[in-house]
Amino acid sequence: MTIGSFYPPQRTLMGPGPSDIYPQVLQALSRPTVGHLDPLFIGMMDELKQLLQYAFQTQNPFTIAVSAPGSAGMEACFVNLVEPGEKVIVCRNGVFGDRMRENVERCGGEAVMVENAWGEPVDPQLVAQALEANPDAKIVAFVHAETSTGALSDAEAIAKLARQHDCLTIVDAVTSLGGVPLLVDEWQLDAVYSGSQKCLSCVPGLSPLTFSERAVAKIQQRQSKVQSWFLDQSLVLGYWSGEGKRSYHHTAPVNSLYALHEALVLLKNEGLESAWQRHRDAHRELRDGLEKLGIEFVVDEAYRLPQLNAVYIPEGVDDTQVRQTLLERYNLEIGAGLGALAGKAWRIGLMGYAARSENVALCLKALESTLK
Amino acid sequence: MTIGSFYPPQRTLMGPGPSDIYPQVLQALSRPTVGHLDPLFIGMMDELKQLLQYAFQTQNPFTIAVSAPGSAGMEACFVNLVEPGEKVIVCRNGVFGDRMRENVERCGGEAVMVENAWGEPVDPQLVAQALEANPDAKIVAFVHAETSTGALSDAEAIAKLARQHDCLTIVDAVTSLGGVPLLVDEWQLDAVYSGSQKCLSCVPGLSPLTFSERAVAKIQQRQSKVQSWFLDQSLVLGYWSGEGKRSYHHTAPVNSLYALHEALVLLKNEGLESAWQRHRDAHRELRDGLEKLGIEFVVDEAYRLPQLNAVYIPEGVDDTQVRQTLLERYNLEIGAGLGALAGKAWRIGLMGYAARSENVALCLKALESTLK
Fold this sequence. Notes:
Chains A, B: This is Alanine--glyoxylate aminotransferase family protein. Two copies of one chain form a homodimer. In chain A, 40% of the residues lie in helices and 16% in strands. By secondary structure, chain A is an alpha/beta fold. Chain A has two domains: 12-18 and 272-371, Aspartate Aminotransferase, domain 1 (Alpha-Beta Complex), CATH 3.90.1150; 23-268, 3-Layer(aba) Sandwich (Aspartate Aminotransferase, domain 2). The longest helix of chain A has 21 residues, at 272-292. The relative contact order of chain A is 0.18.
């Protein structure tokens, strides 16, 4: 059997991620590879750190990109911050809260679940009750923007409750970073991870991560070694540190980091507030058009993510066939439902570079024609 | 502070990796991103699996690329195959054997060390003794090609001993894959991981991995959950399986996988034996030239890796200054010594696309001029 080069088609990516990639990011990606200890590359990593601090709105010195996808960023938070036997309050309102529970348990921690319906945000009242009932809890973990449902939770309120009970917070900002306000310092969040392939419109494979001084202090006071060598952030810190000699930890994914640098330069040039506004504008255009088609949203408008629109599949419509037609005829990808919403909903992403009127227009017209 | 786009220089990469990247691989890298569940992408992953089977010379159905660098590939082997309390014989003849020990201990296993001098291969006699002294050992772990010293160990002989004592093998083939013979099936190796950025001349960030049926059986018989969610290969298997519905695990690093596919197509077209020969030829050219300059090798010719040449820094020469001149004047990167060889040796890589006469000529002339 002969296998030749792979030439992918040009798709319009309006699923839950990867999102449409900025052309400039793809250009940056294919620039010449340099050594991961090259002084010029180390300079780029220092810039990348500053750009990530801007995106996260934080001054945290520990702000890096994990050399692996968002799920590894999630795991980096749990393996570093949870010690065996520790109690963690985990809020679940979709798929990713459940993955957090898995993480806690695999670290030997005890997960106390706060349950919310799919499509609802995390209820701070329930978090408060869990904190009162579990005075020995050390951490509160929750998803800021649930990619499986499109619901936005009040990260500021949950973090405030956690602090009142002397708990750290682990926050999944995979889908929120760059798409909706995420103010790590103002809200005093402790460990926040994201993904490169959502509202940053970079290629998938990297996980931006920031730890507060409180989080770093907890890591430094650990009684046991972090169970993962690859994700042990006390080792990684020496690698990202701009000061003095860079210690070798692993070989950085050089070209992917070029791409993330470029995506963040684009974000910085646009400005966070303009990016948030662009996501809101695109969402409104999409919403108005979908409502005209009689399509209903899963999440109430009050806490709906502009960048991830979960909508119910109209009665009598064949889920798979519609998505296949969109893909094959229009080169347009929208997302299937996940978990409890599998087969019941579509997820239409307007993330990063995808949040543009031309994408909304294509999506609305293609859906209208396909649903006829 | 204003940060603009990053434009790296065109370096010639002759360190321990990343190696010079094939231009075709950089082109493939920047092709349009498609969704990670796109049927065309799934088709590409199936091809990638076959290409990896060729590179590893195996029929193992479990042959994939971990979505993270080689150190994560190493960890994937240990967290899946080692259960708490299990004894693992770890051969150490450089930096990476030591990292294996770290991995065993972080999995709750007990590492029995087989010590060999830096620059020497693993001595099968010592492995045999360790196996006899530890009849309860379950696994033998060793590095096929030590990147820190450039020594090649006899993987076939060590694996045979392991089998005689009913042990599985975990083999670090980060630097060997594509550069020297590595016959996974013929040698009956059980868990073998590599890196994309060495002799495959792909961008860094992925770790090719293959598990034998025996390794898969051990994973299936585990008493405890794998401590890493991200690296739990029983979950990842559903993701890479070509049969039926692909289950979502994490978002694949789509563009990096395009690049790996292309690098493997190039390897397949060249043919493994030709690639091995090209590495040997380039090594001989480099060796003859270095010997004329009076530079000595760390590793004896009998088990010297053609693709990774560790040489002693000549008496009275300033390590850092020479490497800096090579980089700044010639855009040429060679590697520093690591661990016990830091400050004492250089590591000159002839990996993948770097194993060419023009690279050897540049390196020899630039060294000659700089050392004058």
